């Protein structure tokens, strides 16, 4: 029997609406340590809204979200930031901060209102950059980096926050094939090495197939399937999700998801 692992992020019966437009409804899921949980779905399915509710940027209309058993409603914004760190699709600062400056911003939840980063904060940032292989570019302007480097810097900033929940909104949206693999394999490695709970939204179900431990398929604001990639990423489920024929090909060891043909 698999050893019980307590949930770090627990979402129960979540509902959210923009005015009269319901975006999420009756959504229940949980994510645990050392796990990459991928949320897969088409545009406007509610994936990003779910992440923003977990970050407490948005307030759900119904349901509860707990981190470490604590209801988000009982936590201050600083407390939430110490528990959950987010990595956006992209980030374009108005000023050409150095890479180290950007990474050090992850220490903000641990600093007072007027406090400056100290030696310990710099050490945490440098360790994060070392782990992600970007210490050599610490002095470079953030605005002069490639897409893959940008995402690694944002990951380093999240690690510097020292939160144990990592929320990523389509982290490979603007990356080429090589950098997509680099970023996703790095995310998976971080989950294992640091014991992080990773929740990420993805467009391509192949990314979830290769890098996720569990997958939730989201359509019209609700979960239509939840489980391991092999259980969830089937031709029938994906065809229902995207409203088109889907084929799942395998050579016996790997599975690849492709657009199917009408028979």
Polypeptide structure, described:
The longest helix is centred in the last third of the chain and has 18 residues, at 177-194. The chain has a single domain, classed as Rossmann fold, CATH 3.40.50.300. The strands form 3 sheets. A 6-stranded mixed beta sheet has the order 6-7-8-3-9-10, sandwiched between helices. A 4-stranded antiparallel beta sheet has the order 2-1-4-5, with helices on one face. A two-stranded antiparallel ribbon has the order 11-12. Helix 4 packs across helix 5 and helix 5 runs parallel beside helix 6. Helix content is 32%, strand content 27%. With 263 residues, it is of the alpha/beta class.
Which keywords apply here?
4-stranded antiparallel beta sheet; 6-stranded mixed beta sheet; 9 helices; alpha/beta; 263 residues; Rossmann fold
Please sum up the structure shown.
The protein is of the alpha/beta class. It is 32% helix and 27% strand. The chain is globular, with a radius of gyration of 19 Å.
How much is the radius of gyration in Å?
19 Å
The portion of residues forming beta strands comes to 25-35%
Portion of residues within helices: 25-40%
N-C termini distance: 43 Å
Major sheet: order of its strands?
6-7-8-3-9-10
Please give the count of helices.
Answer: 9
Sketch the topology as an H/E string, one letter per element. EEEHEEHEHHHEHEHEEHHEE
Question: Which word captures the global form?
Answer: globular
Q: Which topology does CATH recognise?
A: Rossmann fold
CATH architecture: 3-Layer(aba) Sandwich
Number of distinct beta strands:
12
**SS class:** alpha/beta
Overall mean confidence score, pLDDT: 92
């Amino acid at each position: 029997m698999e050893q019980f692992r307590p949930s770090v992020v627990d979402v129960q019966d979540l509902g959210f609406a923009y005015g009269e437009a319901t975006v999420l409804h009756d959504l229940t899921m949980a994510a645990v340590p050392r796990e990459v949980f991928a949320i897969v779905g088409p545009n406007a399915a509610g994936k990003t809204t779910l992440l923003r509710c977990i970050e407490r940027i948005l307030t759900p209309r119904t349901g509860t979200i707990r981190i470490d058993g604590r209801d988000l409603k009982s936590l201050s914004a600083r407390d939430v930031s110490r528990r959950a760190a987010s990595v956006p699709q992209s980030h374009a600062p108005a000023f050409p901060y150095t890479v180290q400056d950007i990474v050090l911003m992850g220490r903000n939840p641990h600093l007072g209102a007027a406090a400056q980063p100290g030696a310990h904060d710099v050490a945490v940032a440098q360790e994060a950059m070392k782990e992600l292989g970007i210490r050599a570019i610490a002095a470079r302007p953030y605005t002069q980096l490639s897409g893959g480097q940008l995402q690694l810097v944002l990951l380093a900033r999240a690690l510097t926050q020292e939160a144990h929940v990592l929320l990523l909104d389509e982290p490979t949206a603007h990356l080429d094939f090589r950098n997509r693999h680099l970023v996703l394999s790095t995310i998976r490695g971080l989950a294992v090495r640091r014991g992080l709970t990773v929740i990420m939204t993805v467009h391509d179900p192949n990314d979830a197939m290769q890098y996720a431990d569990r997958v939730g398929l989201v359509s019209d604001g609700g979960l239509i399937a939840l489980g391991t990639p092999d259980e969830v990423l089937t031709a029938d489920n994906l065809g229902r999700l995207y409203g088109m024929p889907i084929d799942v090909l395998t050579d016996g060891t790997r599975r690849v998801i492709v657009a199917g043909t009408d028979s």
